[in-house]
UniProtKB/TrEMBL annotation:
Residues 81-235 form the NB-ARC domain. It comes from Actinoallomurus oryzae. The lineage of its organism: Bacteria, Bacillati, Actinomycetota, Actinomycetes, Streptosporangiales. InterPro entries: NB-ARC, NLR-like, P-loop_NTPase, TPR-like_helical_dom_sf. This is FxSxx-COOH system tetratricopeptide repeat protein. Gene3D superfamilies: P-loop containing nucleotide triphosphate hydrolases (3.40.50.300), Tetratricopeptide repeat domain (1.25.40.10). Coiled coil: none annotated. Residues 1-32 are annotated as: Disordered.
Length: 789
């Protein structure tokens, strides 16, 4: 052997590609391309460096890792891979991309194992770095010709690439490729085999002409099967109790399911117990692996590594933490307006989408996996992307963006699509924050959202949001702050609308007193509180006090706000309704007609308040006995409300209920009954079984059955409605007393005076005690009782 000159020193990043050259003796030398000096000298068996075209792959050359025990379902994805990665033609590159932990490697391993009889070799390369790609190719070269194992990596890589170019019928899997450029040494070459890539990265593959296959989470059934298989390994038993609830909480993400299953098996926990731990200590459970599991492959660490790769786009991590507070789907892109400058925001969204941390939908919305959100909003001092101050800042930012996106007028139908788009994200933020740490910004968000929900008839959620808002305002701003007083006023209104007069009345009284003291007697907010207190008195049956307050409020609003102010028109409408409740139909009709004309002039014919005035005027006509005019106006109002507000709006349902009542009053029970039945079904669906309006329709339907001669169905429905009203509204609520009167009357019609008379007597006593001897309902019950004697 001839002596070789010393090799000049070089840094690793100066190495270009290598080329091989055989000397006359048949021994191989490896030279650095472009230099005269060799970089190494190796002695190989004679003929080892024969042309790659003469080197055949050993039969059954497969190095695919075993993932079959963790594989479930995915029949559709496997079929797609089989179809794309056929065994004819030029090279086919397929990139399976998706969120970290979604099962890309498992799918690729399953496909590769299934195709081991069609392709040879089937070679698996862990491709998370360029060095790993090189090592994987070198391993292939050695597997093809073990005697080449003495060659340096560069030479082995070049040998493997040359072999792949010279042969067909092989399948190369490049797993967890983080950057397409790291595999360009393979993908840029003309070849006739099959290359399957798995990557969290969903972009950058177009230059290689790759087929793209996005991998989503498992179905619920598949996730349950995987959890049960792992948790029940080596044990007898069937389906794991509580598995469905757990996998739903885990978002059916395979890695999370695997992590949970292994932990259940090791700790002998139930699925419900694991779920409790997850809710109580999310930071711990997201990062905890059972013995025998890869400690670096917990969901927290997988996504930490992904965000590490996004450090060149710092805004991406901030954006992910903000998105974590919203619902996981259909986040409007417009909600992020103002988050950052346009190009920077687009870059951050694009980078997160490229790594499958979020999905950019075709309609412009943003979505992301719920478990990504759960991790991103859970503080962990060991994770640089999840420090407590950053998460708190993200919550404040997310709340601020929602507040800025809220439409101004909750009663304007034009704003409702925006409201409905934002509601899921407001609800998610509220459910993932604790009331004890609510800020004034969160309180403002919940208070305004409560107002929209109140107008939409969702009293339960409105009340919950108002309660949280009031508690936060009291703690953060103090009891006398205008926002605190406004929140108390709103909560009192929600209590009253729900029939909870026991809580509504004292809160109305307290809020009015506080506003008089803090804001003054003539402040518009004070006048609103006085009007609300008057409404509460009317709802409680105290018509005298209600009339006095409504008259006073109307006079003050005319003086302070002017005759045409919308609040003044509301006072006039409310006063007319109070007159009607007191039995003064003449004054009620006059005032309703005047208010309707003024609202048409000031607000327009289609304004919700105008439609309310038209409905109330029709109600007054019916009370006055003018059923013809009432019917015509009810029919017009219902048509207008369907057109302006929609079929399911609470006001539309009021119009439908009232129209049915007018049909019944006109003697047309045949038209009244189906309209009542439909309205009841719609109110149950939209408002809920226990909503006061639902109970009103059920009571009216019972009356329609009675008018139709079906006393049996009427009695059953009256009894059910009375029981529900006692439970929901209380024994002394005016609506409950009305139900008792109606039930007694049904007993009377059925000839059961033994039950009717005692019920009349008890109801009359309660009406006199609660409403007074001269109240219209008291007088009705008294007349009904007298008719039985």
């Amino acid at each position: 052997m001839t002596a070789m000159p010393e090799e000049p020193s070089q840094t690793p990043d100066e190495r270009p590609g290598v080329q091989q050259e055989a000397d006359a003796s048949g021994h191989g030398r490896v030279y650095q391309a472009g230099r005269d000096q060799t970089i190494n000298e190796v002695v190989l068996p004679k003929g080892a460096l024969r042309p790659v075209t003469e080197v055949a792959a050993p039969p059954g050359l497969v190095n695919v890792p075993a993932h079959s025990q963790l594989f479930v379902g995915r029949a559709g994805e496997l079929a797609s891979l089989k179809e794309i990665l056929g065994d004819a033609g030029a090279v086919v590159v397929t990139a399976v991309h998706g969120l970290g932990g979604v099962g890309k490697s498992t799918l690729a391993a399953q496909h590769a194992a299934q195709q081991a009889t069609r392709f040879n070799p089937v070679w698996w390369i862990t491709a998370d770095t360029g060095t790993a790609v090189q090592a994987g190719l070198a391993g292939l070269a050695v597997a093809l010709q073990p005697e080449l194992g003495v060659l340096p990596l560069e030479a082995l890589e070049a040998r493997a690439l040359a072999w792949l170019q010279a042969h067909r019928g092989w399948l190369l899997v490049m797993d967890d490729l983080t950057d397409p450029e790291a595999a360009a040494v393979v993908l840029d070459r003309p070849m006739a085999g099959r290359i399957l890539v798995t990557s969290r990265l969903g972009e950058g593959w177009h230059r290689f002409g790759a087929h793209m296959l996005h991998l989503d989470v498992l179905s619920q059934d598949e996730a349950v099967a995987l959890l049960t298989r792992i948790a029940g390994h080596g044990r007898s038993g069937g389906r794991l109790e509580g598995a469905a609830e757990l996998v739903v909480e885990l978002g059916c993400l395979p890695l999370a399911v695997e992590q949970a299953g292994a932990y259940l098996h090791q700790a002998r926990l139930s699925a419900a117990a694991y779920l409790d731990l997850l809710n109580a200590s999310p930071a711990v459970m997201f990062d905890r692996a059972a013995r025998g599991s890869d400690g670096e492959r917990t969901i927290a660490r997988i996504w930490r590594h992904t965000l590490d790769r996004l450090t060149t786009t710092p805004l991406a991590g901030n954006l992910l933490r903000v998105l974590a507070w919203y619902a996981s789907e259909q986040i409007p892109r417009t909600l992020l307006d103002g988050f950052a400058d346009g190009p920077d925001l687009v870059d951050a969204l694009g980078e997160l989408a490229a790594y499958n941390m979020i999905t950019l939908e075709e309609d412009g919305a943003v979505s992301l996996h719920r478990l990504v959100q759960a991790v991103a909003r859970t503080a962990d001092p060991a994770d640089p992307h999840r420090h407590e101050p950053d998460i708190t800042a993200a919550l404040n930012h997310a709340t601020g963006l929602l507040n800025r996106a809220l439409p101004g007028d909750t009663r304007n139908p034009a704003t409702w699509p925006v409201w409905r788009a934002l509601l899921p994200h407001i609800a998610t933020l509220a459910s993932n924050t604790s009331p004890v740490v609510d800020t004034a910004t969160i309180a403002h968000l919940l208070n305004d959202t409560g107002a929209f929900l109140y107008d939409q008839g969702d009293l339960a959620r409105a009340t919950t949001y108002y309660q949280r808002a009031l508690a936060a305002y009291q703690r953060v701003l103090g009891a006398d702050h205008p926002s605190t007083l406004a929140s108390g006023n709103n909560l009192a209104s929600a209590y009253r609308a729900a029939g909870d007069l026991g809580r509504a009345m004292p809160l109305c009284v307290q809020t009015l007193a506080d506003r008089v003291r803090v804001l003054g007697a003539d402040h518009p907010d004070t006048l609103s509180s006085r009007s609300n207190l008057a409404d509460a008195y009317r709802a409680a049956g105290d018509v005298g006090r209600a009339l006095f307050l409504h008259e006073q409020t109307l006079a003050d609003r005319v003086r302070v706000l002017g005759a045409d102010h919308p609040d003044t028109l509301s006072s006039r409408n409310n006063l007319a309704s109070a007159y009607q409740a007191a039995g003064d139909v003449g004054r009620a009709l006059f005032l309703h007609e005047q208010t309707l004309a003024d609202r048409v002039r000031v607000l327009g014919a289609d304004h919700p308040d105008t439609l309310s005035s038209r409905n109330n005027l029709a109600y007054a006509y019916r009370a006055a006995g003018d059923v013809g005019r009432a019917l015509s106006l009810y029919e017009q109002t219902l048509a207008d409300r369907v057109r302006v507000l929609g079929t399911d709006h609470p006001s539309t349902l009021i119009s439908r209920n009232n129209l049915a009542y007018a049909y019944r009053a006109a003697g047309d029970v045949g038209r009244a009954l189906p309209l009542y039945e439909q309205t009841l079904a719609d109110r149950v669906r939209v408002l809920g079984t226990d909503h006061p309006s639902t109970l009103i329709t059920r009571n009216h339907l019972a009356g329609a059955y009675q008018a139709a001669g079906d006393v049996g169905r009427a009695l059953s429905l009256y009894e059910q409605t009375l029981a529900d009203r006692v439970r929901v509204l209380g024994t002394d609520h005016p609506s409950t007393l009305t139900s008792r009167n109606h039930l007694a009357y049904a007993y009377q019609v059925a000839g059961d005076l033994a039950r009717a008379i005692p019920l009349y007597e008890a109801t009359l006593n309660d009406c006199e005690r609660v409403l007074g001897a001269d109240h219209p309902l008291t007088q009705v019950v008294r007349r009904n009782l007298e008719a039985t004697r």
